[in-house]
Amino acid sequence: MENKPLKANYHSHTFRCGHAEGTDEEFVRAAIENGYEIYGVTDHVMIPHHPQMGMRGTYEVYAQNYFDSIRALKEKYKSKIELHLGFEAEWLEDVTADYYHDLLSKGIVEYLLLGQHCFLDSSNHWVWYRDIYDTKEATRLYLKNLIEGMKSGDFLYVAHPDLYMMWYGKWDDFAKEIAHEIINTAKDLHMILEVNMGPSRWGKKNYIGQELRVPYPDEDFWNVVAEADIPCVIGVDNHRPYELKTSPYDWVRSFVTRHKLRWLETIDIPSRKTK
Ligand SMILES: [Zn+2]
Ligand SMILES: [Zn+2]
């Protein structure tokens, strides 16, 4: 097969997060060269006074530069590609509720993706769910924060909802229960869930003669999504420009087909700006 790229990608990063490479313009040019019609830039959200080295750009250093740079590219390449400016963001309750509201209502960014990787503890230190020793406890916390985020109404879709399978790792009754909670909430709120391509590049266990195996998207989780008939979108989640060419698109298309998912190739980004 030819590994044809997608028409649209709403999930991508920039060098500012500290674990990605390439200039903003290199990403945009790679998107155009690989036939993308829509490309959303959603670097890890930068939060005033809450730096996190190696995970997100420091707000005070990079935020304005991020907004200016992506807006300038949006204008420069408007005849070639539809660019969007967003963030991939954790729901952090009171710490970010007003900030996210302002980002959207003032039109500073066009949208937010809910990507729940870590949270702030009571002393305002970042904690990764995957670093919590008790993986059930980690998953319960993940679920609680994720569901609150979904209910906030701030997010365009849920990035890698099955992230917990990375640390929980087994499809038992507990994992199923968590999946049902997430999926039922998505159903009630009419939210879209994302099939994430990140691990298909970095996490694969691709033994000779075997299928690509990844911690997520998780086969069992997405069977439940299919049964509930929740719409889904594919997120490339690229951290380097060349990944827009080399990511395993044939593999992700066959994943979506195999699970009979209701895949939306493009989605609307409703304006959240208020006067
Ligand atoms: Zn993410
Ligand atoms: Zn991401």
Whole-number mean pLDDT? 96
What is the number of strand segments? 10
CATH class call: Alpha Beta
Q: Widest sheet: strand order? A: 1-2-3-4-7-8-9-10
Structural class computed from helices and strand pairing: alpha/beta
Q: Looking at CATH, which topology would you report? A: TIM Barrel
Shape: globular
Contiguous low-pLDDT stretches (5 residues minimum) are none
Q: How much of the residues is beta strand, in percent?
A: 5-15%
Characterization of the model:
By secondary structure, the chain is an alpha/beta fold. The protein contains nine helices and ten strands. It has a single domain (8-263), classed as Metal-dependent hydrolases (TIM Barrel, Alpha-Beta Barrel). Helices cover 37% and strands 15% of the residues. It has an eight-stranded parallel β-sheet. A two-stranded antiparallel ribbon has the order 5-6. Helix 4 packs parallel to helix 5 (173-189) and helix 5 runs parallel beside helix 7 (219-228). The longest helix is centred in the N-terminal third of the chain and has 18 residues, at 59-76. The chain is globular, with a radius of gyration of 18 Å. The mean pLDDT is 96. The structure holds zinc ion (2 copies). One zinc ion is lined by residues 88, 115, 117, 159-160. The site of one zinc ion (ZN) has 5 residues, from loops.
